[in-house]
Amino acid sequence: MTAVLEGKLADRDAWTADRCSIAKALDVLGTRSSFLLMREAFYGGRRFDDLARRAGITEASAAARLKELTEHGLLERRPYQEPGQRTRHEYVLTEKGRDLLPVALALMAWGDKHLTGSRGAPLALRHRTCGSGVAVEVRCAEGHPVPLEELGVRVAQPRR
Amino acid sequence: MTAVLEGKLADRDAWTADRCSIAKALDVLGTRSSFLLMREAFYGGRRFDDLARRAGITEASAAARLKELTEHGLLERRPYQEPGQRTRHEYVLTEKGRDLLPVALALMAWGDKHLTGSRGAPLALRHRTCGSGVAVEVRCAEGHPVPLEELGVRVAQPRR
Questions:
Q1: ipTM of this model?
Q2: Chain A: residue whose CA lies nearest to B106
Q3: Banded model confidence at residue A86, pLDDT cuts 50, 70, 90
Q4: pTM attached to this predicted model
Q5: Which residue of A23, A128, B82, B113 sits 20 to 30 Å from the alpha carbon of B103, by its own alpha carbon?
Q6: Using CB atoms, which residue from B54, B107, B156 is nearest to A123?
């Protein structure tokens, strides 16, 4: 069972996903290194050395990926200065960067379920306000969980 | 504001994410092409030519990526035969592959919001059972939406 293509999309041979938002997102997040740097930004990392070390990538790679992530507006580069040191820059999540949280947590949940073997998930997530566990869910506006076979995909109405 | 590292994780210098499920997931889904093939499988694609064409990638790339996705267990390769033709193979989503739906929809939602410009989202998703719109949400077991700054991350209890 798969999603159901509705309306004009039903004829699969008549269209391809030229304006696909998934493809556009992958163009921005194209590399594993980029995503691991975003993970570290979610965990509170801001400084170059810390981000590069914790993402487990070379400094050259970290510099290139942080430049791209800044240009794409996922991180903002801000100057800071410690006493007696030259000015450095740190990388702060923007709203656009923060909005990747569901992607990161959905990848984590999938990896936890399918790739960790008998050891299980290494990390647990909780809602700090109430203490209960956190999950990423596909739901409709009525609150029903939506499995793939109940998902309908159609052409959106253009914005006015 | 970022997620809050709790317990043993609070000392950022004392650990790195060596067993990270996000990194493991990215190792499997490493390439843009792999993910676009999974998108097409979600849309009902099964046959090699159709998957390659609609993912917009070369046949050589499609063959390599489909082999990887099959080896990783996201797709299952099944023989089929049309009258008078030789046996061919089609690619069918496994449970492991289907479980990527939240990742795909989270990427789509992020691209829709941040990368489509004034044209807006090209596709609309609806729950076929009730007709209402579909979204990917980060929620706790109590049903609260969980923004990044209310997310606590700690070491999971090992499985018994």
A1: 0.94
A2: A103
A3: very high
A4: 0.94
A5: A128
A6: B156
